[in-house]
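Re: weekly structure request thread

Next one in the queue (674 aa):
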Amino acid sequence: MSASKKHTNLLVNSTSPYLLQHAHNPVDWYPWSQEALDMAKEQNKPILLSVGYSACHWCHVMEKESFENEDTAKLMNEFYVNIKVDREERPDVDEAYMSATQVMNQGQGGWPMTVFLTPDLKPFFAGTYFPPKDAYGRPGFPTLLSSLAEMWHKDQEKLVSQADTIVNHLNSANSENSKVNSNISDNAISHWNSNFDKRWGGFGQAPKFPNSGAILHLLNDYNVTGNQTSLYSAVKTLDSMFQGGIYDHVGGGFARYSVDEKWLVPHFEKMLYDNAQLMEAYLVGYQLTKNEDYLTVISQILEWLKDEMIDENGGFYSSMDADSEGVEGKYYVWKPEETEEVLSETDAKIFNQYYDISKTGNWEGNSIPNIIMKKSSLSTLLKIPESEISSSLEKSRLTIKEHRKSRIAPGTDDKIIVSWNGLMISSLAKVSAFLDDKEYFEVADKAVSFIVDKMSKEDGSLNRVYRDNLSHIDAFAEDYSYFGNALIDMYEASFDPKYLELSKKYADILVDKFFSDGYFKQSLSKNMVINSVNSMDNATPSYNFTSSLLLIRLHYYFGNENYREIVEASMEKAGVYINKYPHAHSTAIFVNRYLSEGPHEIALSTIDGDNSLLKVIRDKYLPCKIIAETSSDLDIPLLKDKGPLGGKSTAYICKNYACKEPVTDDKTLEDQLK
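Done, posted below.
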């Protein structure tokens, strides 16, 4: 027992910040381990599985109310083997039991997730947050603990049978194959447009989550068809999000979601994966609209990343908490007297008016910065030139950001996860290529080196998590697939063949270890009793289809027919779900586009550093493409017999097994790419 702590459990040996938060609970917590699983079988005790993550507000609440309570802990310790899991470390455990939680709760799920299992890991009861006392017709957590323990003692057979039924249902749900409908993309677009909130942007009602996949598909629909409805749905959503309180107007970056329909009040945690995907969404928004505000958002996400989220060796941290000093959002809200204290009178008036900072406040007596008027309107109101308004706002933002550092900041979950790093590396590479800005590429390249140098095992495979100089937990399918796709994006931004070759290496590990029976399993663990096949995108893309995306891209680069056959099998395996819920399958639809339409296949042969043709290509929004350059020794079909013509830089454009005439001037190339 720690000298300074009354209680210490086995979580104290973890590296996960979330598990360490519970290391001094009076609960006898175990990490997910063979020791804990064996103990449950030996003692014939049910398992209480609690899943959450360090930035989760309601996880903190349940810990304070229940897991720190001596009486509640006594019940848990007496009747259960208690296992605590960081969902970010173990997405396989989280995904399997979230599917069970949703089945048992009419589609509802979330974190903290509380699941009661038989000793052989089959779920018989599940929920999310449970209050400490009985209230409003709902059992408090102690009541639930006692009731389920009594049922286990008196009618164990019934609970085991119930658990078997749930597991059999979940495992049989993935058995039916189907071809994907040819109009699947149109069906998804129709769903998003019909569920679009015309007043506030976004899709559906509050709470509102950023849906980068929907935004990208809507922008692509406009790009291909000229559909103004799709453009409006996407742009209104992009505008509403960055103008709202979900965006940190002082330090950059987006919070996880908005609790209201107006995007004003965020759930203040910031996740790496959200900001990675949103960076790409705003990049494409800029490519198609040239709205300079979107570039500002992109640059400030990078600013937030550099300020808060990068390990000294280059890896990206996972998240920032919603709470500081035990209060959600305290770090991010303001009163006018606070800004007036550090800004000049004129600058404070401009800043407070523009960002809606008032004496009455817009949330619980405080003000969440959000943009309530155009700069031109503020210029007219205050009789100050718009150029002065803009320079004042940026100067004040930096002053306020510096002042905010004097506050107690929310905690940072500084573990480094391969898959989430992959998402951010992808977006940084794409921004770098389009803007021709080396800084984005350099930040991404350091993260690539971090993963390869510090998270690789001797056999060349990867670990998923790094923290405190320890790399551990075998990487999952999502790690290999997200990172593999990121490496292709790094190649396309630099034409350095090492990235493409490394991507193929990880793709081959993915095929060898994770693919079977038409789909990619998430985990190599032998303790998974629920064979969850994740075809749908959630907060992060479906690993099943990021795996397929990786392989179909590499198929077109290397001509590997086995890759294509695997992708076709994965599409057919999930076809029933894709056809039924097209709007939940952004990544699958993107893969289907590679299969059905084929990408633009672009080979470049440049002379003496002449990048005029490359600039034309990168100025175009071409989401479905492969591109290679002849200056390296890369031996791939795309570059075979492709050289400069007439001593000039030359571009070769092919699609669907048909090639256009090679071009040496940018105007002709622009016409070919339309």
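The two ends are 69 Å apart (CA to CA). The mean pLDDT is 95.
Next request, please.
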